[in-house]
Amino acid sequence: IDTVNTVYVAQADWTARLGQSLSSRLAVEYRYNGLESTPFDGGTVYYRNYAASAVVDWEIGDGVAVTFAGRVDSLHLGRRGAIIPPFENAQYDRTITAGSYNAGAVWKPDSVTTLRLIGGLARQSPTMLEARDRQVQEQSFELAVDREVPDLGGRLHFGVYRQVTDDLKQLPRVNADEFEALLTFENTGGSEGWGAEAWIELAGESLSGRLGYTWTDIDLRPSEALLEDEFFNFNDAVPRHAVTANLTWTLAPVTVDLLAKFTSPRDAVVALRPLPPGVDTGELDFDLKRVGTRLTVNGAVTWAINDRLDLAVAGSNIQQEKTRLSY
To answer: Which of these, 50, 55, 48, lies nearest to 94 by C-alpha position?
Structure first.
């Protein structure tokens, strides 16, 4: 069977600048994608997507600027031509309309301080394979402030963020005799989380460095179907606290780099037993194991022999004798 994939795309856009402070862009798009001869000669699976988008950039004044970008998609799934009974082409018909956006505002109250507020909504429309109406949806917001430190040649940063994800999906684990389930996705629920970060950068003539801290709190919201199956609670799979520090010292022609990272306890997925010969991976047992605090230190010393040749000695996990690597 010869499979033919046909794609048509038509786009148009209009850009305008209204004065010195406001600019905008409007766009429309049509896209067609058809795959012929599925699963035999005479049938075509296709989709049509109609989209409209807009971008606005407005410098309000007094150090304030806002940007907005939005898009609306209308996705039409379908099939035509020969088909195997008892299935019908009408069963492929789906129409899904979804919007997404990104928005941001910046305020500079003075020459060294910048405040940012950023938000967005993203959606992933289901495919023909999934044959469902739910869409993976992710919303995120961030508030951050940056301040230059001219006397030290550095910068301070602090930010907090929020993220919410709904209708996550995955292929279910099934045995070979449950082939019909292989072609479906299941809803695994969603997740939400808070986070905060703070760091300082310093840069001198021969010495520069960065010290940072992050805090992360994640809460999974598993679906009822997932709770009925084997469910691992990954809430603590990401370390709640992490501290990183790096230092670079340059005394030409030698440069010394050090990087250290500390993470708080977390959960890690481990196999309870190795995979025996002839056993399917779906029969493996997994569990979560608590991993304690961890400190890793990496370093490198580089000698610039000339403009084309460097000689370097580097090491990873140099604080751990069992896992120390050098090269």
So the answer is: 48
- Residue 145 · residue 119 · CB < 8 Å: no
Q: Is the peptide bond before 253 cis (omega within 30 degrees of 0)?
A: yes
Q: What is the pLDDT of residues 294-312, one digit of tens each?
A: 899 999 999 998 888 888 8
pTM: 0.75
Beta-carbon contacts of 277 under 8 Å, excluding residues fewer than 6 positions away, are: none
Of all helices (H) and strands (E), which one includes residue 142?
A: strand 136-149
Residues 6+ apart with CB under 8 A from 26: 13, 14, 52, 53, 54
Burial 19-58 (b: 16+ CB within 10 A, else e): eeeebeeeeebebeebbbbbeeeebbbbbbbeeebebbbb
How confident is the model over 75-129, as pLDDT tens digits?
898 888 888 888 888 888 888 888 999 999 999 999 999 999 999 998 877 665 5
The three-state secondary structure class of 165 is strand
